[in-house]
Amino acid sequence: MENKTLADDFSLTRVPQEARLPMWEVLLVRVGALTALSQFMLGAALGYGMTFWEAFWATMLGSVLLEVVSLFLGLAGAREGLSTSLLARWTGFGRYGSSIIGGVIAIALIGWFGVQNTVFAQGLNQAMNGLLGVPLTAVLTGLAVTAIVVFGFKWLSWTAKIAVPGFLLVIIFGIFEVLSNHSLGSLVNMAAPGPALSIGMAATMVAGGFMVGAVITPDMSRYCRNGKDVLWMTLIGTVAGELGVNLIAVLMAHAVKSSDVVTIILQTAGWMGAAIVIFSTVKINDLNLYSSSLGVTNIIDTVFKKKVNRGLVTLIIGIIGTLLSVAGILDKFVDFLVLLGIGIPPIAGIMVVDYFILKTHRKVLDESRARGELPDTCENLNPVTLIAWISGFAVGYLVTSGIPSLNSLMSSAVVYFLGMVIYNKAFKAKSKADSEFTV
Description:
Pfam families: Transp_cyt_pur (PF02133). The protein has 439 residues and is mainly alpha-helical.
């Protein structure tokens, strides 16, 4: 079976086995999402406020959480060949609930697209000595990334083949330069250069920083050929992106005694290195736009019963994200996006419990998968899901101890599991009473 529609990328259907990709191609896209300027900024922030080992354990805590979420959702996405927003229809959220998920993810990712595009444009404009100005540069960079994503997942893989090796080479060169002038032992054992940062807060930054990326893992893993590919894709991505980039950035922050990423890169890799690292922002931004387009496509299909081409949707939302970036209002949008970082983990908790523990719709999923189609039936909206989602968000927002992302994820999972057990028992009891009354 071949996807006849340009750039639609199976946005509203299963990805057939013959369209699946080698593990390394999907891995490159995944690593590209983690090995970017934003990840380096996170590591530098940890290094400025923590010792090396404090930053190591904070990164480990956050990374384990991300890996567990990514692996389970990734396995479900690969098994069913479905994106996150489409898979959600049969993992607790129903038809209209999945459209809400698509909307939340789309808003979050369009927002981050604009923020990252601004960073990219500012860096590129600085490298060109202000030749075009930030607004015009932002227009050009935003439309360039949009053009890449319009052509689908294979073009994401193509940009990853350029951006990921370039970024890693700069980081390797940077750490080589650092170790040429500083001993590894002194950097590892030195005190934090800046104000102290707690391990709980740092772990929250690590987990929260990529939690949206963990939840949208099925958008990538649906192209994996089997569960083993999903395991290696998520594990290597987490080790290289979270542990690797974070800890190198920690050492660099210690060496230059600054959390300013541009300063660190300029002092270690020069302008060429800075240009390559800033260009790597393209890699995470095309994934932001790609997953956002899948979410919006699902909304239009659910609410308006219209099947639209994902490429066209990409073009429209890419222009919107670019315009928001140029307008500069996204600087005020970051706090809202961070808030969404608490609201999105409960989605993962509910989906994992429903798919792997309750298996509410596994029978219809299995039957339809054998036919290479979507299930014929789908519930509209599950009230238990909404209660669990709101509960998870409330716990993540109000409970200040621990890791907010983990708090919201676990509480939503527990509330959903218990709520569904009670709901199903009550429904069966009512059905039995009704049948006895009828008799």
